[in-house]
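SUBJECT: A protein chain and its fold
Encoding: whole-number codes for local backbone shapes
RECORD BEGINS BELOW THIS LINE
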Amino acid sequence: FQSKMSNCFILVILSFLVSVSHQACQTTVKGGTWPNFDSFHSDVTSLEECRERCHEDQHCQGYTFALGFNKIKTQCYLFQMLGEMKPCQNCESGINAEFRDKMSCDSQPEDILATKATMSAQECSNSCMETLGCTAFTWFSEQSTFPRFCFLYSKCDGERSCCTDSVYYDSYHGPCNTCISGRVNCIAAPQCFNYSVMDETTRNINFKAVHGEGDIDIHYCDGLGLKTQSPSWHGPGYYRMMPPAGVVMPEFSVDYNSCGTHSPMRFVGSHPQERYVETEATFCAKYFEEDCHHTLKGTVTLCDGYYVYYLPDVTNCHQRFCAAMKPNYPEEDSADLL
């Protein structure tokens, strides 16, 4: 018993010593929903009640609470499968945690963000959603080594049965109903479904805009109100690059007179790999042989397999944001890929 208490005490201390360096996982979003709902409830009158309906349904992965056209009628939509989000009016959506009964999170002590007493697995799940950097949790029942205790994790390498040796106390063998684990899935950031599209062929890195007899002089600008404003430019805002232009901004130097302009702009550094986190970004303009004549600031967000950029107006003509099929392989951006 003393050994159990000693281990528990050490873990509690560890949980508060672990520094949290992760970004917050967003679990609700306004103005977005998913296609193909599985059920709806017209008797629900609040977002909180809609969330509880989803929590009570073990098959529910997400919910949307929406106001009708007159903003009086309300609807609660429940989803068992979540696809790519789409915009919706007067709505707010959220996700439910995935629960695994009789399973615990297989992790390392440094993955523990916090430990706290909770009365239920749902309360433990809610704590994870509210904790910065939490992606997984394990709740122990009153029959377990840590009765009604909730462990919050930055990551979970896998799961193990509560019937086997406990990852926290190897000599303990408990009944199979002693714990419940779960994972928290982040919901898409609003810019991941509310963006403008850049898809002009002229925006690709292989499209040349050159001066000379017999050549077509195309020199678009990504600036609102400019004489040669790009067709897809609608002013500062969120943009997604799509074929035939490309799917991402290049991280490499682009030739002068490329991308349908004279001074093409590229992405500085490497694209982020953490999903749904908006990150500051720098864009660099090529000018003749000078690789980075000047820079502009914006942001970039990794969504579900694609990037969305917040782009400002360019400072002068002729400057334009470039698109490529891959961020760092210029030799693979051929016409066959467009």
